[in-house]
Amino acid sequence: MTINNAIRVLAGTFVLTGIALAHAVHPNWIWLSVFVGVNLIQSAFTGFCPAAMIFRKLGLKD
Q: Is 16 part of any domain?
């Protein structure tokens, strides 16, 4: 698995988890999904992605 694929899986998991928690527990959990979306947008413009750095240290290939 490449870093890009791992980031997509991680982001999708966090978005779906945030939506599920907002539905089942408390509406403020939607902010988790908002945070993930904003982080994806900023990483597209800046190239800075903390998840990519972590996956790189874990040994995933570019």
A: yes
